[in-house]
Amino acid sequence: MKKFDLVITKGTIVTASDIFQADLAIQGDKIAAIGPSLAPFGNRLMDAGGKYLFPGGIDVHTHLDMPSGGIVTSDDFYTGTVAAACGGTTTIIDFANQSPGESLEETVDIWHRKAEGKAVIDYSFHITVCDMRDSVFNEIPDMIRRGYPSFKLFTTYDGLRVEDGVLIRALKQTREHGGIVCVHAENHHMIQYLVKELLTEGKTAPQYHALSRPALAEQEAVARVIRLGQLVEAPIYIVHLSSREALGEISRARREGLPVMAETCPQYLLLSDKYYLEPDFQGAKYVMSPPLRPWESQEELWKGIAGGAIQVVATDHCPYNYKGQKDLGREAFNRIPNGSPGIEARMSLIYNYGINEQIIDLCKYVEITATNPAKIFGLYPQKGTLGVGSDADIIIFDPNLEKTISKDLLHERVDYTPYQGMEVKGYPVATIARGELIVEEGRFIGKQGRGNFLRRSHPVVL
Ligand SMILES: [Zn+2]
């Protein structure tokens, strides 16, 4: 009998539906068998020593090598995916951002060139559309067929935002061709009004960023987008949901049976708006949109995850250096580059605060970090689960390993982490991507450029 390339023995296998002790065999880049006593059939053995085997994390919200307002996010597709891999993530979906005048074809070509030869884990692209002229609108069906079934639209930011009319047409067009629209939902005019008021009063410090983008602005836009989707019976995926007010709108829509889904991020679950008060402009590190919220929102978002109203935890990894990039907003909070790093610590942070604090169970943990992202964005069951025939994307996770999150621990190419000093129990000790051991004891040992582009199929509404 032909032997398996690798058998991982004595693991505790966790999927979104099961937890059991078994050996797991890998042949090439796929999981070939799961069962008891597979050790005699392995060419090579790896002893998991009772630790957890989770499906590799899937982070469906990243911004690598992204130009914006004259600067570029500090991680490229090499450094960013190395960091992801070290943290237990084996797949990302990054946002390919259209520039005005570009066709969507040109947009994805640009992003392919950024990722090819660099990414160390598998990747795919959502397409961010800011210029929905007729020719772009007509490209949507073809892009869905070619493996880009998800599009992101903004309701805020000059130069990016689209009007409701455009949203309605885009929602209908994507729905009809089996795609999905993701929305950054905040009310543009409320924010514009508040920014002007605050700056006129001389309120320029980072803390006013949060006041300029209140939960009300998010709630209004989420509610509106949900109703636009209802009009044309289109599914909606709200990115980076941050507030309990907006979550209320999601929950209500789901109770009504509408196909509305939501993602939140570790920063909205773990950090509060108090961080903006850190002295000496340190608050700029947490300037992101939507902003961090008061503690009550964190509590409600966790409940939203546990209860199923929120299906995904992604990172919105959008790293800007404090020195030289965040700095640009010293004169006024609205000039601070928006975004914060987080691609590496997600799997550990959510484990520590979700599992150790007993808010969610292990199956739910796998569901929100891997299985649901794969299902919603057309990668399941190739990705997002541990099953025979699936890609062998596996992390070996030690629930007892204690770490203190710090800039020095992480591999992200950015000069700070918003989670500095947080103590976690539970950390990945090995990352296997398509059958290849690429991270061992926190060290990346894979090859640059080994990541493949993933052509995705139709999204599933959960
Ligand atoms: Zn984002």
UniProtKB/TrEMBL annotation:
Annotated keywords: Hydrolase, Metal-binding
Cofactor needs: Zn(2+)
EC number: 3.5.2.2
Amidohydrolase-related domain mapped to chain residues: 52-437
Top class in the EC scheme: hydrolase
GO cellular component terms, A-Z: cytosol
GO molecular function: dihydropyrimidinase activity; metal ion binding
Coiled coil stretches, renumbered: none
Keyword Hydrolase among record annotations: yes
Entry-annotated residues carrying N6-carboxylysine: 152
Entry comment on modification after translation: Carbamylation allows a single lysine to coordinate two divalent metal cations.
NCBIfam families noted in UniProt: D-hydantoinase
Family of this protein: Belongs to the metallo-dependent hydrolases superfamily. Hydantoinase/dihydropyrimidinase family.
PANTHER family: COLLAPSIN RESPONSE MEDIATOR PROTEIN, HYDRANTOINASE/DIHYDROPYRIMIDINASE FAMILY MEMBER
Name by which UniProt lists this protein: Dihydropyrimidinase
Organism of derivation: Desulforamulus aquiferis
